[in-house]
């Protein structure tokens, strides 16, 4: 039996913001198409996980695999993020993202190597895009919006910076000769109702689209 083991952050965990409950909840992926094709799915994603934390999760959960196991990786969304409170308090300062670009790439390659040493095939996902305006409004709640904007210089830098980490994921896939699962192009530039109020997590509609495309692309990749 084919086995899929997913390692990533809240996007493939299925996290969404519920406006009525005023909190995050799980959408509840069921992976019907994969199950119908006799594929067992294990989701090891964690909300907020950077690639460093993801590596530790993999070390704790990934045992020796047979040749029918595919590890799917989806990291970068939290790695490219900043401590926005620090930025708001010092808009003239210099800040690094949670995982700087070079270390992100190096660690991603090590993650691929580790999964392969365990006997698994590996595929890497591109990142679902974010909406700069919604994201900015969300992360600056209780902070000085104008200070953060002054540090950025341009609100659209947010989405372009996040896209850069998606490109780094593509680079890792190319360097490591991994199959690429493109989730980014599904959403395109006009995300509309596919993203929630926070501008980074898919809405219920977005997760429905994402789940369907994810399963189709996985089936095509394996």
Topology:
Elements: E1 2-8, H1 10-13, E2 15-18, E3 23-26, H2 32-36, E4 39-43, H3 51-61, E5 69-74, H4 84-89, H5 101-117, E6 121-125, H6 132-139, H7 145-152, H8 157-175, E7 179-181, H9 184-187, H10 204-221
Parallel strand pairs: 1-4, 1-5, 5-6, 6-7
Antiparallel strand pairs: 2-3
Helix pairs in contact: 3-5, 5-8
Could you walk me through the main structural features you see in this protein, from its secondary elements to its overall organization?
By secondary structure, this protein is of the alpha/beta class. It has a single domain (2-81, 99-130, 167-221), classed as SGNH hydrolase (Rossmann fold, 3-Layer(aba) Sandwich), CATH 3.40.50. The protein is built from 10 helices and 7 strands. The strands form 2 sheets. A 5-stranded parallel β-sheet has the order 4-1-5-6-7, sandwiched between helices. Strand 2 and strand 3 form a beta hairpin. Helix 5 packs parallel to helix 8 (157-175). It is globular. The two termini are 12 Å apart. The model has no long low-confidence stretch (mean pLDDT 93).
Mean pLDDT: 93
Helix content range of the residues, please?
40-55%
Second CATH tier, the architecture: 3-Layer(aba) Sandwich
What global shape is seen?
Answer: globular
Write down the CATH topology.
Answer: Rossmann fold
Low-confidence sequence ranges: none
Number of domain units: 1
**Strand share of the residues?**
15-25%
Number of strands: 7
């Amino acid at each position: 039996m084919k086995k899929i083991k997913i390692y990533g952050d809240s996007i493939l965990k299925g996290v969404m913001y519920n406006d009525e409950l005023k909190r995050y909840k799980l959408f509840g992926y069921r992976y019907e198409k994969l199950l119908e094709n006799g594929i067992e799915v294990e989701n090891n994603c964690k909300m907020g996980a950077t690639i460093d934390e993801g590596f530790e999760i993999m070390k704790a959960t990934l045992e020796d695999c047979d040749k029918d196991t595919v590890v799917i990786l989806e990291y970068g969304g939290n790695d490219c993020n900043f401590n926005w409170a620090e930025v708001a308090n010092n808009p003239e300062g210099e800040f690094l993202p949670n995982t700087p670009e070079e270390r992100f790439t190096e660690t991603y390659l090590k993650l691929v190597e580790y999964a392969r040493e365990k006997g698994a095939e590996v595929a890497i996902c591109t990142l679902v895009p974010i909406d700069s305006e919604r994201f900015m409004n969300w992360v600056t709640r209780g902070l000085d919006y104008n200070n953060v904007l002054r540090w950025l210089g341009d609100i659209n830098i947010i989405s372009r910076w996040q896209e850069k980490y998606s490109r780094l994921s593509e680079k890792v896939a190319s360097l490591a000769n991994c199959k690429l699962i493109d989730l980014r192009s599904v959403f395109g530039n006009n995300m509309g109702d596919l993203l929630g109020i926070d501008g980074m997590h898919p809405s219920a509609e977005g997760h429905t689209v994402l789940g369907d495309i994810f399963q189709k692309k996985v089936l095509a990749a394996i």
